[in-house]
Every structure is written in C-alpha cells, then in structure tokens.
Amino acid sequence: MSKILEICAGSLASCVAAQEGGAQRVELCDNLGEGGTTPSYGTLAMARGKLDIKLHAIIRPRGGDFLYSTLEFDAMAHDVEVCRSLGLDGVVLGLLTADGDIDAARTRELAALAGPMAVTFHRAFDLARDPEQALEDVIAAGCKRLLSSGQAPSAPQGVALLSSLREQAGARLTVMPGAGVRAGNIAELAAASGCAEFHASARGEAESAMRYRRCGVGMGAPGVDEYARQETSAALVRELRDALDRL
C-alpha cells in the first residue's frame, strides 16, 4: 500500500518546501506555536496558486481549547466557505463540548458546508475523554480522516491506541498519526500502527536576514527571539519520504 506524507506548513515558503521534498499533501496553518490557526485569505489563495499537490487548511479561530463560542463558530463556518471558494482540497477542524466529547452537531454542520472538500478531524480528538466513542462521533459527523497522536504527547508514544483506532474505523475513516513523527521513527510507527498516512512538520531553523537587530524589544511572549523562526525543510521532507518509500 502506498504511504501518504502530509506536511504541516506554517508559511508559503514551507508549503513550497513540502512540495519540493516530495510530500503529497500540505496542511496549511498560521501560528504553529499555538498548535495552528486559520491562515489569512491571501496566504490561502497564494498557496493554492503555488501548489500542485493537495492543499488542506486548518479551521481554528484561536489557540487554546476547542470549546467555541457562537461568534467563533460562525467565523469557522465562513472560513470553510472561503476555502471551498478558493478550490482547496480539504479542511482540518476539531470541536469539543465542555464535557470533553466531540461536538458532533457542529462538526456535522461544518462538514456539510465543506461540500466536496475532504474533512479531517484534528488533534482536538486527543483531548476527548472517551477515544472509542469519540471516533464513532467523528465518523458520524462526516469526517473522512482523523489526525491523532493516540492521546499521547507523540504518535510513537500513542501507537497502541492509534492501531486500535485504525482497526475500529476500518474503511470508514483514515487514521493519520501525527506529532513527533520523524524520519528516524516513521518506519517503526508505520509497522506498529498499520497506518498508511502520516503527518509531520519537518521543520528546521531559519535564520533572519535582518542586519540591524534591536535587542531587548520583543513583539511576542517574553524570551522569544524575534529573529529566529522555523520553516519546513525540503531536505527533511525528503528524508521522511525516502523512509516511507523504503517500506
């Protein structure tokens, strides 16, 4: 069975690097330091024009938990419609109730708005209280893919649950391991989980081109280096792709 590699990209440059490295799909996010939020319209439109591979976008109005207000949900619905109008291939979303269950009604509503686009339920699943029931709710809501670390800090640590979820889902939904997926562990993860799709960021340090740098003034959280960032590396993507191709 051919293995699919999805790269979580936090910029247009990272999208291009993912494609150059051999990924078959990109999940485009903003604010990866917060787990990913919805990119701007301009970023989505530019990415669609630059990529020949599949392009999915995260639908998440903010960082933090996955219990959304009516205003936030309405924004998510508009973002789904924007992605559909731009010709994206899929959206990635996740909503929970206050009691830690899948918000099935709202997930179903967004999945219906997505129309022909593929719908992935993201790692909000990993915060659900009952993974077996949560999986059934995700499937019933119309999602065709689940991104999960197996409710563990990383997919290799959660591989037992990932394997169980894959067996439970059968042909109804694709389980895609993500979090901590590297070239050095992806083969073992594939063998132990039985999964055929994998999600990774493949990021490396990207040096700022700024020559003048003002010290002691930050725009974000205290201690964050404004002149350091991470981008997807085409070389790291290629290492992941090569590891999968050897299976």
From TrEMBL:
User: SUPFAM superfamilies under this entry?
Assistant: CutC-like (SSF110395)
Location comes to: Cytoplasm
Q: Which UniProt keywords apply?
A: Cytoplasm
Alphabetical list of InterPro entries matching this protein = CutC-like (IPR005627), CutC-like_dom_sf (IPR036822)
Is NADP one of the keywords UniProt gives this record?
no
Instruction: Give the UniProt family note.
Output: Belongs to the CutC family.
Name listed for the protein in its UniProt record: PF03932 family protein CutC
Q: What is the lineage of its organism?
A: Bacteria, Pseudomonadati, Pseudomonadota, Betaproteobacteria, Neisseriales
